[in-house]
């Protein structure tokens, strides 16, 4: 009975670790030790369908007429947190990706909120508490277990590239008859500002109902 209980605990620990793990297991994370891992369900030229297990993040919300300005302000709040601006004065390793929750229907004529999140390292996914933020604008949140539709693109993640690629992904999903959350999407960046070439970004829409694979999916 004790042995069985121990195996259950071990299985749970391994399941947790599978959500955030060694970046060597992913071709997308080239600058960090750890990365958000996923299961690819199907992929084609138009988009990919992935499954992500629940994971813990540290986040900040900023409001602006301009996406780029909001992201920059929130990013530096979070960067200060992992550099030791927390209750323990602890430095925390950077992870990938950085995600931005973006409301649909944003425009340069209307102020909007953007939620920027850093993935917490695996040590803080497994029961050890991350140090509390000292900035009142920084908080923890948990992303649910979910499937997402993903479109990848290169270059820089900015307001204009976010809008274009989100539009392209929506068009592909409508053509495929796929249902997805239309209230928001995630803008996702994997690279530091210092990386000039071979950058990787993504747009995610959360699947609703049964997922739909793209035509010619593998």
Give a concise summary.
This protein is of the alpha+beta class and 218 residues long. The protein has helices at 2-17, 67-82, 159-176; strands spanning 20-22, 34-36, 39-43, 48-52, 55-64, 98-103, 112-119, 138-143, 146-153, 184-189, 201-206. The protein is globular and about 50 Å long.
Descriptive account of the structure:
By secondary structure, this protein is an alpha+beta fold. Helices cover 23% and strands 30% of the residues. The protein has helices at 2-17, 67-82, 159-176, and strands spanning 20-22, 34-36, 39-43, 48-52, 55-64, 98-103, 112-119, 138-143, 146-153, 184-189, 201-206. The strands form two sheets. It has a nine-stranded antiparallel sheet. A two-stranded antiparallel sheet has the order 1-2. The protein is globular and about 50 Å long.
Beta-strand segment tally: 11
Query: Helix share of residues?
Result: 10-25%
Q: What number is the mean pLDDT?
A: 90
What is the rounded distance between the termini? 43 Å
Strand count, sense and barrel status of the largest sheet are: 9 strands, antiparallel
Which sequence of strands runs across the widest sheet? 3-4-9-11-10-6-7-5-8
Q: So how many helices?
A: 3
Percent of residues in beta strands: 25-35%
Provide the succession of SSEs: HEEEEEHEEEEHEE
Shape designation? globular
Radius of gyration using CA atoms only: 18 Å
- Identify low-pLDDT runs: 1-18
Helix/strand structural class: alpha+beta
């Amino acid at each position: 009975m004790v042995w069985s209980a121990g195996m259950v605990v071990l299985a749970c620990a391994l399941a947790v670790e599978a959500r955030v793990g060694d970046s060597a297991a992913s071709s997308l994370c080239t600058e960090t030790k750890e990365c958000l891992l996923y299961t690819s369900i199907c992929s084609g030229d138009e988009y990919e369908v992935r499954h992500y297990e629940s994971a813990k993040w540290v986040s900040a919300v900023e409001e602006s007429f301009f996406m780029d300005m909001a992201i920059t302000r929130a990013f530096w709040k979070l960067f200060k947190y992992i550099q030791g601006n927390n209750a323990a004065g602890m430095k925390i390793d950077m992870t990938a990706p950085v995600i931005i929750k973006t409301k649909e229907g944003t425009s340069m004529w209307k102020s909007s909120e953007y939620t920027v999140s850093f993935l917490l390292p695996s040590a803080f996914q497994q029961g050890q508490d991350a140090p509390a933020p000292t900035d009142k604008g920084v908080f923890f949140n948990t992303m649910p277990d979910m499937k997402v539709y993903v479109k990848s693109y290169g270059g820089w993640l900015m307001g204009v590239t976010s809008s274009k690629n989100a539009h392209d992904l929506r068009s592909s999903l409508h053509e495929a008859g796929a249902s997805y959350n239309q209230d928001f999407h995630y803008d996702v960046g994997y690279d530091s500002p210092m990386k000039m070439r071979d950058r990787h970004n993504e747009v995610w829409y959360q699947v609703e109902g049964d997922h739909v694979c793209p035509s010619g999916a593998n």
